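Hi D.,

Good news: the full-assembly prediction came through. Inputs first.
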Amino acid sequence: MCGGRSCYPAEMSAPRSTKQRDVIARVLDVAEGPLAVPDILTRTQAQVPGVGLATVYRTLKLLSDQGSIHPVTLDGETLYEASGRGHHHHFSCTACGRVFTLHACPVSIPAGTVYPGGFVVEAHEVTLYGRCPDCAARA
Amino acid sequence: MCGGRSCYPAEMSAPRSTKQRDVIARVLDVAEGPLAVPDILTRTQAQVPGVGLATVYRTLKLLSDQGSIHPVTLDGETLYEASGRGHHHHFSCTACGRVFTLHACPVSIPAGTVYPGGFVVEAHEVTLYGRCPDCAARA
DNA sequence: GTAGGTGCAAAGTATTTGCATATAT
DNA sequence: ATATATGCAAATACTTTGCACCTAC
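Then the structure:
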């Protein structure tokens, strides 16, 4: 129907699979939480020595457009994480600065809920701040 | 006790009161929600024609250090809002892009609550996404 | 073989800083 | 009078883009 091996909209071809892309995608897949760009670059370079920063940015944009990852902004820092991990939120440790993924959700707001003033809620995002297990134990 | 008109730590003097600072502080005080820097500049220029962008940034930093305002990062954009408005959250309209302050809080997490995994929660931040009253009415 | 991808370096944004002038105290 | 603040322009930091070479298909 579309001529190629998989169907992409007319005049558009499927992105090619390259070592750089595969590694960057996997780095995010196995990450313990959302990662910053320099961190992604470092982890990628461990497996693909010469990768350039531009490729990381280009790939992050590509993966974001595809929907397989998405950016999270936390305290002014832009982090990226793999999508499709289900509904979750983030915990930012005020002691060590690391960000963790939490699958517990402290909020229950069905889509369509109307807030005082007439705000129709479609989605929510929660960030918790405090001490991560390591830092809490160390305190 | 400290020699000056107000007490500041030794070797530090009180910031001076200037037209620029007063106006920038007031702009944030009367704002309907957190504002982006270009927006702050525009609103300030309406009252102090020649203000420079650098002064806006310097003043935002000063006010932040003083604690009278604080930055909020929302979808990669850095916004500033006056502090001391009590516990509140933000609503970001997915249609018009405006950000509003909401005083309703959908979360109840007493400080010290421990989340699964051992995360000790000290604070939380919530952002709701959806249609603002204007856009909901227009839909 | 060819379209698409990569690395490098140059170009854009956003924010910060240096310096001469202006201003609050 | 003098230290501090301002405005402009240069400097920084982060991200995007142009281009010649390389690689997946």
